[in-house]
Amino acid sequence: MPTETVRVDWLAERIFLLRDRNNFPVVMTQPQGVNGADLLPLSLVGCSVWDITNILHKQRQQVTRLEATATSQRAPEPPWRFEKILIRYRFTGRDLDPAAVQRAIELSETKYCSIYATLRDVVEIRSEFEIVQEG
């Protein structure tokens, strides 16, 4: 089983420097950095769009733009557990096949996205998409 290590360094007061396994930096603080809790839904949509764009590219779908949002609902009391996440995808491209887009999303959710696989049994995750045809 491969192991991966990420790192966090406390810089000052409430400022933390996060580094991914490739040493890429992310500043976590408020209000001028990422909120730690936002990293979970960001990871989820980041993982899924990575998979989806790769799948659609292999299917020769002509995606020219992809936007994704993750809207979260969390418990009102500490530890403010994530309860629901709705992912909305907006695909723009030429002659995009809705069935191919739906299949790419399903493959990400059921087979490829490690974040989705980790969360799906403990957080209600739904997704929806729209397609904007160019030309």
Overview features:
135 residues, alpha+beta, 38% strand, 3 helices, single chain, three-stranded antiparallel β-sheet
Overview in brief:
The chain is of the alpha+beta class and 135 residues long.
Structure description:
By secondary structure, this protein is α+β, with helices and mostly antiparallel strands. The protein has helices spanning 39-58, 98-112, 114-119; strands spanning 7-12, 15-19, 25-28, 62-74, 82-94, 124-133. Helix 1 crosses helix 2.
Note the topology.
Blueprint: E1 7-12, E2 15-19, E3 25-28, H1 39-58, E4 62-74, E5 82-94, H2 98-112, H3 114-119, E6 124-133
Parallel strand pairs: 5-6
Antiparallel strand pairs: 1-2, 2-3, 4-5
Helix pairs in contact: 1-2
Number of H/I helices: 3
Order of helices and strands: EEEHEEHHE
Shape from CA axes?
Answer: globular
Main β-sheet, in a few words?
A: 3 strands, antiparallel
User: Quaternary status of these chains?
Assistant: single chain
- How would you write the strand order of the largest sheet? 1-2-3
Radius of gyration: 17 Å
What portion of residues belong to β-strands?
Answer: 35-45%
Number of strands: 6
Distance between the termini: 47 Å
